[in-house]
Amino acid sequence: MQDQEELARRASTGDRAALEALLAEIQPSILRRCARFLPCYQDAEEACQDVLLQVARNIGGFEGRSKFSTWLHVIIANSSRQTYRSLKRRAVEEAHEQPPIDVADARTTSVIAGSRLDLLDALERLENRNADLVGPVVLRDICQLDYREIAGQLGIPEGTVKSRIHQGRAHVREYLTAG
């Protein structure tokens, strides 16, 4: 097993074998991380495949200014949130096209699934209100990056990261308690 940072560096220069080794190496952890965001395993698998595809397509843009794992966290967070939005949109479209059927609401059948859905809804509401606050909150509270890594990834001062996380958490808390 080679170091992921080294594989990413080599893959970013066009080394196809390094890219294939990197994708195989990171796939299990991507799936686990996507599952932190999404309540259903199949949805996490879908997001995982999207992340792997994005890594393969965009590895040439990885410049090594931040750690590969930090770069990957951002892709995972964005892909998981995009998968959730897509699933919500599909559910609304299907509800209009088909007669209603009695399907159990994940929020009542699983506390964990419900809390994830509530959090994703709150993050979506926050994004509509102030998109600058979402990234720092997701990177800190879900991806568990430290403030320095977040500042480096987003290209903003550490103090700004802390301020945005504080503001974002306050809004998310408000959305979660109002629901």
UniProtKB/TrEMBL annotation:
<keyword id="KW-0805">Transcription regulation</keyword>
<protein>
    <recommendedName>
        <fullName>RNA polymerase sigma-70 factor (ECF subfamily)</fullName>
    </recommendedName>
</protein>
<feature type="domain" description="RNA polymerase sigma factor 70 region 4 type 2">
    <location>
        <begin position="119"/>
        <end position="171"/>
    </location>
</feature>
<dbReference type="InterPro" id="IPR014284">
    <property type="entry name" value="RNA_pol_sigma-70_dom"/>
</dbReference>
<dbReference type="InterPro" id="IPR013249">
    <property type="entry name" value="RNA_pol_sigma70_r4_t2"/>
</dbReference>
<comment type="similarity">
    <text>Belongs to the sigma-70 factor family. ECF subfamily.</text>
</comment>
<dbReference type="InterPro" id="IPR039425">
    <property type="entry name" value="RNA_pol_sigma-70-like"/>
</dbReference>
<dbReference type="Pfam" id="PF04542">
    <property type="entry name" value="Sigma70_r2"/>
</dbReference>
<keyword id="KW-0731">Sigma factor</keyword>
<dbReference type="InterPro" id="IPR007627">
    <property type="entry name" value="RNA_pol_sigma70_r2"/>
</dbReference>
<keyword id="KW-0804">Transcription</keyword>
<dbReference type="InterPro" id="IPR036388">
    <property type="entry name" value="WH-like_DNA-bd_sf"/>
</dbReference>
<dbReference type="InterPro" id="IPR013324">
    <property type="entry name" value="RNA_pol_sigma_r3/r4-like"/>
</dbReference>
<feature type="domain" description="RNA polymerase sigma-70 region 2">
    <location>
        <begin position="25"/>
        <end position="90"/>
    </location>
</feature>
<dbReference type="Pfam" id="PF08281">
    <property type="entry name" value="Sigma70_r4_2"/>
</dbReference>
<keyword id="KW-0238">DNA-binding</keyword>
<dbReference type="InterPro" id="IPR013325">
    <property type="entry name" value="RNA_pol_sigma_r2"/>
</dbReference>
